[in-house]
């Protein structure tokens, strides 16, 4: 349930960008790097680099909200049993990615009887390697979860959002438990992703400049390397290679 | 019970969780019944009484656990992320009631 980036991605692919006016859509071109260099004219020539970039995320709002997941079903248990069960959910062999659960704040409202609980969940997440490398994350992902249990209205809501990588995108998950009968409880879950476009741009800029630097370095090394090869092949410094020797 | 962020907090966390669960399991069913059968004034009395009881029973272990876990949160560099998340979405009140009415609870 928490931290499932892989399944989020899968869902995300199914849904196209919702509610994006045609005027705000952008072409999906990615990053291109061009290089031109004059190797011959001057030994110290610096390769000329040319770059063009555009984002793959293609709606030009500052914060992009993409609702992409919702489901609901009934548990054959009374609401009170389900709500008591919430606090016993982890550790769970079906959710081994949730490793730590900590309450960081809790209050019982003396007027309404509503219990508010703020927790931090620690997940060991098999994140795609490229995400870890690109965004400097780690295997540990943390989630903030706020729950409200209201006995008077028999409603329990749990909202969670990722703390890790939150500078790039937030995944808000909302769960609600409500009784549909004395013996059944309806579970409703929705999730949405908000991508922070400004941060994505900064990141693509950074990746781009890193690529440019790498390219520049490699281009210099390539040039130096090939110069050596050509010198070795064609400059007459090795008399023992004369054809008449064998 | 799941582990704490920091192994040194786990015993305190488990003691606190056990305390809360015991209290909660005693609280919930009567709270539902009270809200159905008893006039508004008395329900509040029940909630008030149980809130005080929770503080009395679990307040001490909570203070210890809280101190430990706050340090663990700091040590893992989560404090700023948490603070940012709280500013963006304080969630002081249940989302269904606080969202539309423009909750003023940004602290």
How would you characterize the overall build of this protein?
The complex is a heterodimer of chains A (246) and B (107). Chain A is α+β, with helices and mostly antiparallel strands. Chain A folds into two domains: 5-20 and 64-196, Naphthalene 1,2-dioxygenase Alpha Subunit, Chain A, domain 1 (Alpha-Beta Complex); 24-57 and 199-235, no CATH class. In chain A, 26% of the residues lie in helices and 37% in strands. In chain A, the strands form two sheets. In chain A, strands 3-9-8-7-6-5-4 form a seven-stranded antiparallel β-sheet. Chain A has a two-stranded antiparallel ribbon with strand order 1-2. In chain A, β6 and β7 form a beta hairpin. The model of chain A is unreliable at 1-61 (pLDDT under 50). Chain B has 107 residues and is mostly helical. Chain B is globular, with a radius of gyration of 17 Å. In chain B, 73% of the residues lie in helices and 0% in strands. In chain B, α1 packs antiparallel against α2. The two termini of chain B are 32 Å apart. At the A-B interface, α2, β4, β5, β6 and β7 of A face α1, α2 and α3 of B.
**Count of helical stretches of chain A:** 4
Please identify the top-level CATH class of the largest domain in chain A.
Alpha Beta
Task: Give the topology string of chain B: H per helix, E per strand.
Answer: HHHH
Sheet with the most strands: spatial strand order of chain A: 3-9-8-7-6-5-4
Q: Low-confidence parts of chain B, pLDDT < 50 over ≥5 residues? A: 97-107
Count the helices of chain B. How many? 4
Rg of chain A is 28 Å
Provide mean pLDDT of chain B, rounded: 86
Range of strand content of chain B: under 5%
DSSP strand count of chain B:
0
- Given the C-alpha coordinates, what overall shape of chain A results? elongated
Q: What do we call the CATH topology of the largest domain in chain A?
A: Naphthalene 1,2-dioxygenase Alpha Subunit, Chain A, domain 1
Shape of chain B, please?
A: globular
Whole-number count of domains of chain A:
2
Largest sheet of chain B: none
CA-to-CA gap between the ends of chain A?
75 Å
**Largest sheet composition of chain A:** 7 strands, antiparallel
Family (chain B): Belongs to the TRIAP1/MDM35 family.
GO molecular function (chain B): phosphatidic acid transfer activity
Region (Disordered) (chain B): 80-107
Protein name (chain B): Mitochondrial distribution/morphology family 35/apoptosis
């Amino acid at each position: 349930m928490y931290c499932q980036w892989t399944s989020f991605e899968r869902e995300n692919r199914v849904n196209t960008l919702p509610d994006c006016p045609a005027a705000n859509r952008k072409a999906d071109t990615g990053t291109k790097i061009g290089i031109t260099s004059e190797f011959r004219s001057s030994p110290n020539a610096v390769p000329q680099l040319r770059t063009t970039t555009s984002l793959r995320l293609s709606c030009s709002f500052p914060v992009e909200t993409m609702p992409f997941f919702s489901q609901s079903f009934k548990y054959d248990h009374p609401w009170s049993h389900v709500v008591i069960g919430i606090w016993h959910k982890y550790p769970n062999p079906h959710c081994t990615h949730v490793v730590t659960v900590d309450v960081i704040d809790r209050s019982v409202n003396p007027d309404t009887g509503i219990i508010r609980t703020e927790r931090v969940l620690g997940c060991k997440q098999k994140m795609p390697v490229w995400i870890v490398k690109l965004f400097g994350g780690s295997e540990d992902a943390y989630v903030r979860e706020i729950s409200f249990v209201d006995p008077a209205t028999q409603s329990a809501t749990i909202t969670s959002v990722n703390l890790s990588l939150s500078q790039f995108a937030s995944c808000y998950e909302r769960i609600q438990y409500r009784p549909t009968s004395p013996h059944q409880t309806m579970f409703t879950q929705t999730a949405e992703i908000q991508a922070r476009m400004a941060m994505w741009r900064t990141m693509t800029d950074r990746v781009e400049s890193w690529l440019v630097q790498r390219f520049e370095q490699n281009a210099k090394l390539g040039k130096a390397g090939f110069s050596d090869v050509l010198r070795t092949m064609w400059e007459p410094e090795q008399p023992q290679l004369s054809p008449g020797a064998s | 019970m799941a582990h704490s962020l920091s192994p040194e907090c786990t015993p305190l966390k488990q003691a606190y969780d056990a305390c809360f669960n015991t209290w909660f399991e005693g609280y919930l069913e009567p709270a539902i019944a009270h809200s159905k059968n008893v006039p508004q004034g008395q329900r509040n009395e029940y909630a008030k009484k149980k809130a005080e009881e929770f503080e009395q029973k679990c307040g001490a272990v909570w203070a210890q656990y809280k101190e430990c876990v706050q340090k663990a949160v700091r040590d893992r560099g989560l404090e700023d992320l948490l603070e940012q998340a709280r500013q963006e979405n304080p969630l002081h009140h249940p989302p269904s009631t606080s969202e539309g009415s423009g909750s003023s609870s940004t602290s």
